[in-house]
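Contributing new records

If you add data, match the layout below exactly. Sequence lines come first and carry their own label; structure lines follow with theirs. Keep one chain per record. Anything else will be rejected by the validation script.
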Amino acid sequence: MHDEALLVARLFLGVPFILWGTMKLRGGEAKLVPVLASMGLPDAKALAYLVGFCELIGGVGVCLGYPARTFSVLLGLWCLVTGYTAHKNDINQLLAHVGMAGGFFVLAIVGAGAMSLFGGAPTGVFAYLP
């Protein structure tokens, strides 16, 4: 039951990032570019695509369960940074990002479980990735 619960938790955490990343890569970056430009960041359009790519890859890694710990820490930090920078004036969005970050950090501590790519214990070259 423990491994099934971890799979469900990984899907709850990873699927939104897959969707958000896909939407940004398929034209949704148009909404993000003005926000990034208003923050004074250079080349906001390229950065918006980079954000979409990182969200997509991170979400896929969490859903597959490998390397779940690395992607969980990175996406947890991502949630904290985006919550503070983009949603600090909206307490509901800020708390939602903090809650997601907490879920990612718990996943990083617990691990992906046996129902993941490589069964949670990769071998060969993949064993060197965190």
